[in-house]
Amino acid sequence: MTLAIVHLLPELLGTYGDRGNVEIASWRLKQRGIAHEVITVGVWDKVPTSADLYFLGGGEDDAQIAAREILEQDAALQKALNNGGHIFAVCAGFQLLGASFPASRKRTITGLGILPIETLATSPRSVGEILSQPTISVATLTGFENHGGQTRFLEELQPLGRVLRGVGNGLHSNVDGVVTDQIIATYMHGPAFARNPELADWVLARKVGELAPLSAPIFNELHAERVASN
Questions:
Q1: Which residues fall within 8 angstroms of residue 58, CB to CB, at 6 or more apart?
Q2: How many whole angstroms separate alpha carbon 220 and alpha carbon 228?
Q3: Whether residue 222 has pLDDT greater than 80
Q4: How many helices (H) and strands (E) does the chain have?
Q5: SS3 (DSSP) at 110
Q6: pTM, 2 dp
Q7: What's the CA gap between 186 and 179, in Å, rounded?
């Protein structure tokens, strides 16, 4: 079995380096010898509906709207979920999965309606480091947030983390992101998987099962050299 990873619309949703999440996921699978392929879906490509893991990144208002228009065609992401696919979404990708999100010129844009959330325009903009205590079994989560909207749950949902520093979803919720059976979403840039390798493995394990821990020989070698030099 070859795990199929889909990187969605990097031309539109790639402003903050979130493509690094795809690269980190691929690297961590490769180190364990797990067969996989990365499928990059551009603006003119058809979105596959039978892949295993889909990545959505961050982007500016007009790019986010364009991404929504592409992804709503044929309800591709909903079909992917129906076929057992999982989604990891960051910032704009998180917002467009909901019922609505704000845009410039005081516009409110209808989202994909996959998650029972909505995002509202707020001021000031949420910019800076974010630190949260995860609701899943991984280490403390860290990232960088940069978003003008804040997100609220329309139904009872599990957040990804409880904010210790920063804004996260905002609207006085003191939480960041969301966790469902098939979706993990967050406001953490960084990229999130680079800054939180345990989160990367947790997301991957939901599709491939328990993962063996990775050794870090390069860091061990660097440490040994540093000790020897002292």
A1: 13, 14, 15, 16, 18, 90, 91, 92, 93, 146, 147, 189
A2: 12
A3: no
A4: 7, 12
A5: strand
A6: 0.92
A7: 9
